[in-house]
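Reviewer 2 asked us to include a model.

Predict the structure of this chain.
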Amino acid sequence: MAAAVELSRGAVAAMSRMEQGLRPVLQVTDVRPADGAGGDRYLVALSDGAKSEQGMLVASMAHLVMARAIRVLDYLCIDTRVIIVEQLEILQINCALIGTSNTHGRPLSLTPIAALSPYKGRWTIKARVAAKSGLQHLSNDRGEGKFFDFDLLDAQGGEMLAKCFSLAAEKFYGLIEVDKVYLISRGLVKPAQEPFNSDYELALDASASVEFGFSKTHPAALLNVEY
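Predicted model (structure tokens):
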């Protein structure tokens, strides 16, 4: 039996702050191909046992997607939210989930989609993407940009359309995938501009938080639903 791996707790937060000289031991809790990357890049979820963050393997590392415990030897961090792994060492191919990491280091409070409104302060929703549009190119008097939207459904039956423009469209289009579950926060809730199954819609800019919502990473015991 392989020896237990000791993760580098606190490393994910330090990497997000772009601290240098780190060689942390992390666990890969999910892997999937990145949309539009021609099958040679992979989005991953990286956990230090207390906190998880989105990551990406560069093309030269794509053959290592089966690794589950790794030591990161070199990396970049984009916009403090996506860790791009450039070099790594495989420690274990298969290992059980270590720790109960979440993106806040404490029980995560979720808001049902039905409870969202322009008057609600901080919130985080956990929802599945039911549908996703293509990436559209827009042109108007203010210049050119990109746009896409996606339909969100949560466990309570709430539904809302989310829209991404410009930098947010470029940032999140490759991340969002139909039938995947995400944790979303820091978006703007506003009255819906077109008929839909909700009175409101969600507008996301580049400062929004969109993260994988894996059931293993966020077990039910850690999720408190707020109304």
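Residues 103-107, 215-227 have pLDDT under 50 and may be disordered. Residues 108-225 form a domain with the OB fold (Dihydrolipoamide Acetyltransferase, E2P) fold (CATH 2.40.50.140). We have added this to the supplementary material.
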